[in-house]
Write a structure and sequence with these properties.
The complex is a heterotrimer of chains A (about 350), B (about 240) and C (about 290). Chain B has eleven helices and ten strands. Chain B has helices at about 40-50, 70-75, 95-100, 105-110, 110-120, 125, 140-150, 170-185, 195-200, 220-225, 225-230, and strands at about 5-10, 15-25, 30-35, 55-60, 65, 80, 155-160, 185-190, 205-210, 210-220. In chain B, helix 8 (about 170-185) runs parallel beside helix 9 (about 195-200). A two-stranded antiparallel ribbon of chain C has the order 1-2. The chains are: A mainly alpha (about 350), B alpha/beta (about 240), C mainly alpha (about 290). Chains A and C meet through helix 4, helix 5, helix 12 and helix 14 of A and helix 4, helix 9 and helix 11 of C.
Chain lengths: ~350, ~240, ~290
């Protein structure tokens, strides 16, 4: 692929990126900035979830990591004035540790697929329950509010939302960038092989546990940082939003809607779902949140049945297939003579 | 003509397993299909039983097109199969295996009678009526599998390599059983690698190689053919 | 204190009976249709809401309300199979799991919209039976007896009827079942109907014991799956025994600490056992 065609392909993307970058400077309504930042944050969280999901390591319990990250950070900050950046690090490590223990046990004993999903589901609930149980410290289901310290980069707090916009965007870019790195590395090939046929992969010497653990730890760590990101942005947490079954299921849904095997799938899925939720919330008010969720659920089930690769994935596959066919045509003509 | 296979081709994905197969099976006849491994013999049986649908061609049973039916419908119209290895229900008793064989409506009302007939043909099954099918020996399992297929009161019985994994003495026993069944008026299509044994009970035979019918004829023709004698009869 | 624990143990065993019923339904569906029915707890929840509705608005007695509830849930099970699961039979297991998880969202929010977030319960106060210094709740006892009777009935159904035989066969070898002239889709429908009816029965036993709310299903689904996995997925005996174990464990823990810690303990024990013996106490690990 030469330089011009590369630029031609990336051109629309570059324009989009440019637009996103300068948007806040054009004084759009604050609500728009708020929503887009929200999308960035959840896209980040969903993308790092699909680090695992794309290799058939489906976790239905990532809420656990979100919760651990968020609560470790907010507790350290509210009670001990420790910077959320450090909180992010510690929260991430906490999540990674949990992932290490559970992941090792599961992978070591061949707990995969449905079993694995159920164990992670339980894990998400445990964390939510623990948070609730220690309500004297964590505020339980009433949640915790971030202590206000005005605008401070050190304490990761800004009075103007625009800063969160760019920080979240950076996180998202990083996650996408990391995806690409993983994609081009040995790790992708190994995990792909493992996903296809674990026994065969083991028999050619791929260290199954090592690779699985690696991607799991990364996903857990980054998810926890996403939890901190969310906390700092919303300045409020409660176990319902950041741990437990609800959010743990919402993440894979966003990924699947968009197409979790594709780089942009998670982002697109998140953007669509958040927009949809906001639209319904605005149109019908909070009273109808229940109905919107019902539609949301129906939409998801319908999507899984009719578009198992997600919207982005299906469209992307369609274009890939067309491209492949058009590239194959000239070759077929040669075939007569080439053979 | 009981069963007509006309120009049937079948694929597993891109791989062609059957190539324009045509053959006919007459009523009350025992037809044998021999050929090497991977020739498509099992595939043909699976296609007749409805697990695989032909990409082209027709299968007619008593003049009616059956190649687009689901497997359970094929059983209902009178074609039973004894798959390779028997594939019994391991955690059901011998009696329950037989009972479920008579699930189709036409067979259910005749269950008691069918059971008696089957116990007559295979007395050892009566002895072991309450034993779990998974705990029986290879030969016994094959017998149970054949018995089970008869419980459905079929017209045509398909047998997929009944001698597989069995000791020679047991194989003889099984072939004798096939003969007994034949005498009771069932039409049989049997697929077998052990051509010599199979031809003992055959009226007609087909040779399947690489998904194509290479030769067909009656028993004498096969026994006399040089190629078959060398390749499949070890003569 | 000992009396308290002893009573808790007794009541835990009684509760275990109903849990065993719930778990039976799950194992049945898993064994035959080979899917993990994540939304089974929600079925029970719906059943309870329906009974509540019928008893309060339409003034039916609990027996008729329960009967109607069972019928509705049986039909719902059939609908579930036809609309959601049949199209996904050839899809990866993940998709099936997530579709069912989507159903959780649908059911819970439907309940929220229709009945609000409040706790709903019928006021049916059954007496407490005293045995010396121990006590057992009548509601638990009734549930236990009912559950055992149902389980015996199910046993008869599965072992003595043609339909039951077909169900057992389908669980063991799907291809062979078709060779018997059995239509697997039809078996799936019957299995789901049975599962649905079972969830209705469980719901009716739960009515005098629990109050229902939109998140009731989740709590019970989780516990139900803990029991199922502990006993080994698809293993009926294992599920049966585990139901009683968990019933007793949660009962005693609830007496000793708060409910949340009790639940957390149960979950942690579950995770620990999963780590040490993933195939469950009695189960066969499903290799993929």
């Amino acid at each position: 692929m030469n330089a011009t065609s590369f630029l031609k392909r990336k051109f629309p993307l570059a324009i989009l990126l440019l637009g996103i970058l300068i948007l806040p400077l054009l004084s759009p309504p604050p609500y728009l900035i708020h929503i887009i930042t929200f999308i960035f944050i959840w896209s980040y969280i969903t993308t790092v979830w699909s680090y695992m999901g794309r290799f058939h390591l489906v976790s239905l319990g990532h809420g656990a990591f979100l919760g651990i990250g968020a609560y470790i950070s907010i507790l350290l900050f509210n009670y001990y004035n420790i910077s959320p950046w450090i909180g992010m690090l510690l929260g991430g490590m906490g999540a990674a540790l949990l992932a290490l223990i559970l992941g090792y046990a599961c992978f070591r004993f061949g707990v995969i697929g449905d079993y694995f999903a159920l164990v992670t589901l339980a894990l998400g609930e445990v964390i939510a329950l623990i948070i609730n149980a220690f309500r004297d410290v964590t505020g339980g289901s009433l949640g915790m509010t971030l202590k206000g310290v005005g605008t401070s980069f050190y304490y990761f707090q800004f009075e103007k939302k625009i800063y969160y916009y760019y920080v979240s965007l950076l996180f998202l870019m990083f996650a996408l960038f990391l995806w690409q790195i993983i994609d081009r590395s040995r790790i992708q090939k190994a995990l792909h092989a493992i996903g296809e046929d674990e026994i065969a992969a083991a028999s050619i010497g791929i260290r199954i546990i090592r690779y699985k653990l690696f991607i799991t730890l990364i996903s857990a760590f980054l998810t926890a940082t996403g939890g901190v990101l969310y906390t700092q942005f919303m300045t409020y947490v409660n176990p319902e939003t950041l741990s437990g079954v609800g959010v743990s299921l919402a993440i894979p849904f966003k990924a699947i809607l968009g197409g979790m095997f594709h780089l942009w799938g998670s982002t697109i899925g998140t953007a669509m779902i958040v927009s949809l939720e906001e639209y319904i919330r605005i149109m019908y008010g909070a009273r109808f949140i229940g109905i919107s969720q019902v539609f949301y659920g129906i939409l998801l089930v319908a999507l899984i049945i009719f578009l198992p690769k997600g919207l982005y994935g299906t469209i992307s596959d369609y274009w890939q297939e067309r491209k492949r066919i058009s590239e194959e045509q000239p070759k077929m003509k040669l075939g007569f003579f080439g053979k | 003509m009981l069963l007509q296979v006309e120009g049937v081709s079948a694929f597993y994905g891109k791989f062609q397993a059957l190539d324009q197969i045509s053959l006919t099976i007459q009523e009350r006849e025992t037809t044998i299909m021999v050929g090497p491994n991977g020739a498509g013999k099992t595939t043909l049986l699976r296609t007749i039983s409805g697990f695989l649908h032909p990409a082209s061609g027709n299968i007619l049973f008593n003049g009616e097109k059956i190649d687009d039916l689901d497997p359970y419908r094929i059983v209902e119209i009178g074609i039973s199969q004894v798959p390779e290895g028997g594939r019994l229900f391991p955690y059901l008793s011998v009696k329950d295996n037989l009972k479920i064989g008579s699930f189709p409506k036409q067979a259910r009302s005749k269950f008691k009678k069918s059971l008696e007939e089957v116990y007559e043909l295979f007395p050892i099954l009566k002895e072991r009526a309450n034993q779990l099918a998974g705990t029986m020996s290879g030969g016994e399992r094959q017998m149970l599998a054949i018995a089970r297929s008869l419980m459905a009161k079929p017209i045509l019985v398909l047998l997929d390599e009944p001698s597989t994994g069995l000791a020679p003495l047991v194989v003889t026993h099984v072939i004798n059983l096939v003969n007994d069944i034949k005498k009771r008026g069932y039409s049989i299509l049997m697929v077998e690698q052990n051509a010599r044994k199979a031809l003992e009970v055959a009226d007609r035979a087909f040779l399947l190689e690489s998904g194509r019918v290479q030769k067909e004829g009656d028993r004498e023709a096969f026994l006399g053919d040089d190629h078959i004698k060398r390749a499949y009869l070890g003569i | 204190m000992e009396q308290l624990i002893l009573s808790a143990t007794l009541n835990g065993i009684l509760l275990g009976g109903v849990l065993a019923l719930l778990v039976f339904g799950l194992n049945l569906i898993f064994g035959v249709v080979k899917i993990i029915h994540l939304a089974y707890g929600q079925f029970v929840m719906l059943g309870m809401y329906i009974i509540f509705l019928l008893m309060t608005t339409y003034k039916m007695n609990i027996f008729i309300a329960s009967l109607i509830s069972c019928i509705i849930l049986g039909l719902l099970g059939i609908l579930l199979q036809m609309i959601v699961i049949n199209p996904l039979l050839k899809s990866p297991r993940l998709n099936q799991l997530l579709a069912l998880a989507g159903l959780i969202i649908i059911f819970e929010n439907m309940a929220m919209v229709l009945w609000g977030a409040d706790y709903r319960g019928i006021k049916l106060f059954l007496p407490v039976i005293h045995l010396g210094s121990l006590f057992i709740r009548t509601s638990y006892l009734v549930a236990f007896i009912g559950a055992i009777i149902t389980l015996l009935g199910l046993n008869l159904f599965l072992n003595k009827t043609y339909v039951g035989l077909a169900i057992r066969a389908t669980a063991q070898d799907l291809d062979s079942t078709q060779l018997m002239g059995i239509n697997p889709k039809w078996v799936y429908l019957i299995t789901q109907a049975t599962g649905g009816i079972l969830s209705g029965i469980v719901a009716s036993f739960f009515m005098p014991i629990y109050t229902v709310h939109p998140h009731f299903g989740s709590a019970f689904t989780l516990m139900a799956f803990i029991i199922v996995i502990l006993g080994g997925m698809g293993n009926f005996l294992g599920g049966f025994i585990s139901a009683f174990i968990i019933g007793v464990v949660t009962s005693i823990s609830a007496v000793l600490t708060s409910t949340e810690i009790a639940d957390s303990i149960a979950l942690i024990i579950f995770i620990l056992i999963m780590l040490v013996r993933p195939q469950g106490l009695l189960g066969i690990r499903e290799s993929r």
